[in-house]
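Issue: ligand-bound run for S-adenosylmethionine - logging full I/O for the record.

Environment: standard queue, default settings, no custom constraints.

Inputs:
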Amino acid sequence: MNSAIRKFIFHDLQTIEGYIDPPDALVFLSLLQSQKKRKLGGAIAEIGVFYGRSYFLFRKIGGSDEKILAIDLFDIGQTPEGMPPQYSRFLENGRRLGLPVDEELIIRGDSTMLEPSQLIGKIGKVRFFSIDGGHMLQHVMADSRLAMETLADHGVIAFDDTFNPAWPEVTVGVADFLRKSGGAFSAFCMTKYKTYVCRREFHELYTELIANSVDLAAFDHVETEFLGSKVARLHNPISRRMVYELMIRSGMSAFSERAYR
Ligand SMILES: C[S@@+](CC[C@H](N)C(=O)[O-])C[C@H]1O[C@@H](n2cnc3c(N)ncnc32)[C@H](O)[C@@H]1O
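Outputs:
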């Protein structure tokens, strides 16, 4: 078991305001480590950094040599002068955690205006692409096109906020992306918040990786069908979520990892 990284997920990551929760952090860990083990190379890219919760998870898993390209508007709290507070808080989180940000690979701007060649010129092909930027159809359409065109053959795209009634257009965007791909891409895993897709030729491989991951053994793996492919839905029972939340709120984050063994 990855005890140091699990400690990071259940303790340090909780100190950063943001959205990735333990089940998805454990899926990221399982996929990224399995890709490394199988020599499925490539960089990591993410759209939607916020204050860096997922960025620092990538850095912790990948180590200092991993190329991580991160894109965000970084305009939260912006005033006409000075550095945007969102960006300085992101950098500050990195300093505090001892996980510095590679600023050469940070793009401050609108992801929907980027061309695939701009990403490939900086990091080459991508093996893991997280999409969590703008949540309207136009964003998901543009971001999924960018991901598809920069993805290594064996690459994975993680879409955030799928099936979340607060953001219905994300679900439409992901379904459109899969259907327009004509079967070239298919989903292989879903959690409460995210949907993971890959090229059809790698569907079996990623299905097996998810099924056999020690870090995901705590979840019920429920076979689901989505647009013509089999998907492992990782179910996280409410009883565990409640125990976990209680531990976090009562300052016992160091022990919360045990709820997910
Ligand atoms: C939900 S937050 C991302 C959460 C983050 N992944 C985490 O783990 O905490 C969404 C982010 O997307 C950014 N965003 C929204 N629209 C964008 C766009 N068109 N281009 C780039 N970033 C965008 C916002 O600035 C915000 O920081």
